[in-house]
């Protein structure tokens, strides 16, 4: 499980000289994770390279320190740790991959634990380490349960579903394209139903993609990294939920709907079939269509052009 250990930036660069190249530490600080500004991890290091990032930093929670470009460094508030380099984003991604390689730093490994009452199909694949499957769970044929996955009591994973797969996040830099190394996991509550051929993506920089108790996810759904699915929420077939989406308790996402990165769907909200949602949805509201307008407004518009 996650250890919540921290390390100072000065320790990192003293251990790996290449990570200190073109890096000036102005105010040293301790941090546990690297993350992007919209991430929800506590005690994290982020990059800032523009005025827009400065505005996001004002509202960001859990940030301990910043690596910034020389152009914006003077505008970083004094309560943040600070270092300066020419390419902050590439540097924090290098530091992220360095942290992953420190044994037992972010995560304490353990042999996988499967309750004796759980029913695991013989063709299912469960990682040998860092998985917990509680009592009464059912893991279907050809399902894959990757490391750093915790599954609560009486939950079921359908045939061909993959839990804890890698996020589509590419490593920046001039070399050949490759996936960024990732350190997060998936946390599934009690009485969760996930049907067949669905992908549940692990969190990228640490922490969990979370599915709370009694949520229900249909076939062929893609739930991306760092999402948080509230209790008794429903996500229907072929929906695509992009990274860092928060789905409120009792919400509903219809078939073939798409929810863009970082969106919050309020409690008991509804995204109707095929809707493309690009901004937050208020609780107890219903949105429809491309760019997800309020449902009645969309219906009235359709009536007006018929």
DSSP strand count: 33
Shape: globular
CATH-defined architecture of the largest domain: 3 Solenoid
Q: Give the DSSP E fraction (strand runs of 2 or more residues).
A: 25-35%
How far is the N terminus from the C terminus?
Answer: 57 Å
Classified in CATH, the superfamily of the largest domain is Hexapeptide repeat proteins
Task: Describe this structure as you would to a colleague.
- The chain is globular and about 55 Å long.
- It is built from 6 helices and 33 strands.
- A 10-stranded mixed beta sheet has the order 9-12-15-18-21-24-27-30-32-33, covered by helices on one side.
- 16% of the residues lie in helices and 28% in strands.
- It has 306 residues and is of the alpha/beta class.
- The model has no long low-confidence stretch (mean pLDDT 95).
- It folds into 2 domains: 94 residues, MurE/MurF, N-terminal domain (Udp-n-acetylmuramoylalanyl-d-glutamate--2,6- Diaminopimelate Ligase, Chain: A, domain 1, 3-Layer(aba) Sandwich), CATH 3.40.1390.10; 192 residues, Hexapeptide repeat proteins (UDP N-Acetylglucosamine Acyltransferase, domain 1).
